[in-house]
Fold each of these.
Amino acid sequence: MTDEPAAEPPAPGRRPDPGPGHRAEGAPTRGRLRSSMRPRLSRGQLLAALLCGVLGFALVVQVRQTQTGGLSSLRQSELVGLLDTVSERAARLDAEARQLQDSSERLRSGVDRSAAAEQAAEARLEELSILAGTATAAGPGIELTITDPQHQVNAAILLDTLQELRDAGAEAVQIGSGSTQVRVVASTSFVDDPRGVRVDGQVLVAPYQYRAIGDPPTLSAALGIPGGVLEVLREHQASGQVTSMTNLLVSALRPVPTAQYARPAPAAS
Amino acid sequence: MIPAIGLLIGIVAGLVLEPTVPVWLQPYLPIAVVAALDAVFGGLRAVLDGIFDDRVFTVSFLSNVVVAALIVYLGDQLGVGSQLSTGVVVVLGIRIFSNAAAIRRHVFKA
């Protein structure tokens, strides 16, 4: 390029400019084109061919590089900028992911907690309904039939029997005679009555029948110990007969009392 | 004719061999290619003007490439590599356009 006049439009490979007026020369141009197309084997031509070959080679290589290279063709400063952008974006996404994870955890633990609480409450409701006598209960247990021909069995003996059953682990108890069945709960009362015994206001007459759900061998043993219920009954000219059952039904229910004044107090926390 | 064949052979070789550009050459190759393109257009114009000279073409081709690479290298060292590359590409582009215009006038008389 050093051989070019500075003012000229650049044209590497030109000899010193022949001057203006060489434009639009019709036939000479065609002739030159044609003559240049004729293969003339000379050192200069070969050198130019070699350079053109290098150019084509480099051109294709560079195009490929640009298409496939991606990051590897970038400059250091560009890469640093790109890295900055990417790491910034990653940090932002990280923060967002953490936030979402937190809220997901929160929601899930909330669901778990409420489900567990619901389950616990249900279990507790079952227990309490059995205890309060508002639900029927079924399971293994014993049936104790007390025959009392002499009318010697009073409320105290029946209460003792109940205590013995409870001590032996009876979980649900009902007492009855004939078609009258009474569920025995914490507040059940036994009162002597001329006809028999009044349990929770209902008059029962002999023979009495206890049904208690619990471990049958334990319950039977508790009733049969020396000085126990069966012996006391015998002393009173009465007799008790224990039958173990694998599936006993305590079906008598107690009406749910509605509290008139008491309300649940807010839990002190 | 022979340079055209050389160009074709170079393109085919590039397509077939699929070489990777070494890292140290990566910033300079695009500029060098543009500079060489400028030289080739200039040479084509010289052919049409009837003043083509193999020696001048060779020297201008090589010096174009070297100077362009040198400018980019200097720009990289000064921290203005990308700006200087843009400048070089703009200048070479203008030259290519003017050479192409001259070739067009020769070929199409317009």
Amino acid sequence: MSAPVVTPVSSILLVVVASLFGSFGMVFFKAGATNSTAGLKSLIFNWRVFLGIFLYLMSSVFFVLAMKHGELSILYPLVSLGTVWTLVWARIFFGEQLTKTKFAAVGLILAGIIFLNLGR
Amino acid sequence: MSSATISPAPIGIVDKRRRSFILVFLCTLVGAAAQMLIKTGAATVTRPGFFGAIIAMLTNPPLFAGYCLYGFNTILMVLALRDGELSMVYPVIALTYVWVSLLSMVVFHEPMNVFKAVGVAVIVAGVAVLGRSKAA
């Protein structure tokens, strides 16, 4: 057996912060992607896409700080919280419907995260 | 003798959606590889704090390589998002969790236990349920 690796709470919180930044990055990618007309140029020279990239970079810095300690197999799945945020932002900013199915999916993802933390 | 007419596949919303899905699936493989590099690099970062992490992202080879892959991943994802609904396309990314969990065991020798296995499985189930959502 290998020596137990402790995943500190601080690392977990840093992943949560990273997932929030990442989900907002996603919102701006979507806004930029649907806003651009045909052609790669309109996609590249698009402030929404740039802001999305910036938010992703912010997310990445928090993620590196989180990854310093602890197990990848615990920390990485916590990124799925970003999916939950994204569904909420999709509802708020793009008017995408939050159906019962999506609610069920969110419930499963959150349950999965709880299980992961029990296995910590 | 045979002069069967092969009608070309109609180019429509279904094909766009399929292309979008394939791109996102590719993202999960690239993303998992990036995570392995990021974890490898992050574990060796000695400079503390927020700016320490930024400097490490630029100077630590595995971290830098990991984020280059991540950047490539992001381009793929933006392309995928052009044809897919945000709330449908993004969760497919969750497949990455399976690859990362398996690679964590194999490469980093992280222990697996029932809770972790069930946790990842339930998360993936959540993703599968999302795919069945009516809006897809």
